[in-house]
Amino acid sequence: MHDIRFIRENPDAFDQALKRRGLPAASKDILAIDVERRDAQTQMQGLQAKRNDMSKQIGDAKRLGGNPTALMHDVGVIKGQIATLEELDKKLAAQIEEILAAIPNLPAADVPDGKDEKDNKELRKSGEPKKLAAPKQHFELGEALGLMDFATAAKLSGARFTMLKGQLARLERALGNFMLDIHTKEFGYTEISPPLMVKDEIMFGTAQLPKFAEDQFRTTTGLWLIPTAEVPLTNIVNGDILDKEKLPLRVTAKTPCFRAEAGAAGKDTRGMLRQHQFYKVELVSVAAPDQSEQEHERMTQCAETVLKRLELPFRTIVLCTGDMGFASRKTYDIEVWMPGQNAYREISSCSNCGDFQARRMNARFRAAGEKGTEFVHTLNGSGVAVGRCLIAIMENYQEADGSITIPAALRPYMDGAARIEAVK
What is the rounded CA–CA span in Å between residue 227 and residue 196? Predict the structure, then answer.
């Protein structure tokens, strides 16, 4: 959500930031409604003062034995006028909120301008892709091993679902536990097991609603299945006033994620790269404004550490203005090398949302000794997507005979097993 005062004071800067996002100017329409609302508020304040003065006159008239009938009539008229203005004020406030709720976050000054993913900028690379003679894609490997069953998943649930079996199912579980251990034991994140269904206002707080409702799954009770643990983890501070001394707050969770993928028709239809249901380890930080940039860099390094420990080649990029998510003011994507596709694919996205989500959640902090409060900054990142990490391991650690070597870092989570072989 945007600060209307900022738009009033900086309309050109607001419109220029929207232009960087590839969006049309919006300040004129917003401020026209804002002016109308402020005029209604001014009229209302004037009438309230007049009503109070006349009410005093009525009291004086009664005390002196006069007849205040005319004054009482006029006060009644003024009360009706105030009620009408109050309704207009609510209506205009709702119009402004509806417009602002549909406008994405403004990009940070150092975010590169661009239209789409082609304009993203690579920051660094880690590891060298292995030279494989004839690399197979994960679904070819998984089906040949007898441990990845798309047919049964489709029978149960339809398209974009996968059933893992045996050692692949165990490897998925091992990956999630491995990631949680790194983030909690080494990086100081507190593990959370959050609800997987949330209310409308919680989805609004992190900006999944109202704009992206079609990408979500809603239950018959009106609750929403979470598309990522970012939603419940960030909303832990919804409506709260935090002590600055306790910031940054860092939490993590491994949860199922549910996405309708309404905008992804025809993309990655084979395999388990883009699913309606998948596991992800999420990182969320709540920070003071003067901490958030450093926290963003730290969070990204935490996610990179997972891939380094697994010895998976990856690169880190900064997204351009045209490719950023709705709530983000700056995003780093981490892309892991997929030999079967001969391409880097996103496995983590770490975003600094500034105070954009905090305004929607009314999440604030207060510094010691201060009376006033400020909005917190919120950050979120994949630490990392478990399913995509599983795919990356399968493709990068595939052997000529179709077996999968288990990375050394995961073997303690697999009872020391070093290889996944075909079911006999």
Answer: 9
Question: Could you give the CA distance from residue 350 to residue 331 in angstroms, rounded to a whole number?
Answer: 6
Residues 125 and 8 in one domain: no
Residue 263 has what pLDDT?
57
Query: What is the predicted pLDDT for the residue at 261?
Result: 77
Contacts 24+ apart (CB under 8 A), 16-19: 17/106, 17/107, 18/103, 18/106
Residues 290 and 142 placed together within one structural domain of the fold = yes
- How many residues can be counted in the chain? 424
Are 414 and 308 contained in the same domain? yes
CA distance 84 to 78: 10
Give the Cα separation of 12 and 7 in Å (integer): 8
Q: Coil, strand or helix: which one is 368?
A: coil
Q: What is the CATH number of the domain that holds 84?
A: 1.10.287.40
CATH of the domain at 136: 3.30.930.10
3-state secondary structure 140-186: HHHHHHCCEEHHHHHHHHCCCCCEECHHHHHHHHHHHHHHHHHHHHH
CA 56 – CA 62 distance, rounded (Å): 10
User: For the chain, what is the domain count?
Assistant: 2
Which of 98, 321, 380 shows the shortest CA–CA distance to 211? 98
10-residue mean pLDDT series, the chain (424 residues): 96 98 97 97 95 88 82 90 96 96 97 97 96 94 96 96 97 98 98 98 97 95 98 98 98 97 67 94 98 98 98 98 98 98 97 98 96 97 97 97 97 98 86
Q: pTM for the full model?
A: 0.93
What φ, ψ does residue 17 adopt, rounded to 5°?
A: -65, -40
Sheet holding 343-352, edge to edge: 121-126, 314-318, 330-338, 343-352, 377-385, 277-287, 249-258, 190-191
Angle between the N-to-C axes of helices 166-181 and 292-309, in degrees from 0 to 180, rounded to the nearest 10: 140
Give residue 157's domain range.
117-420
pLDDT at 366: 97
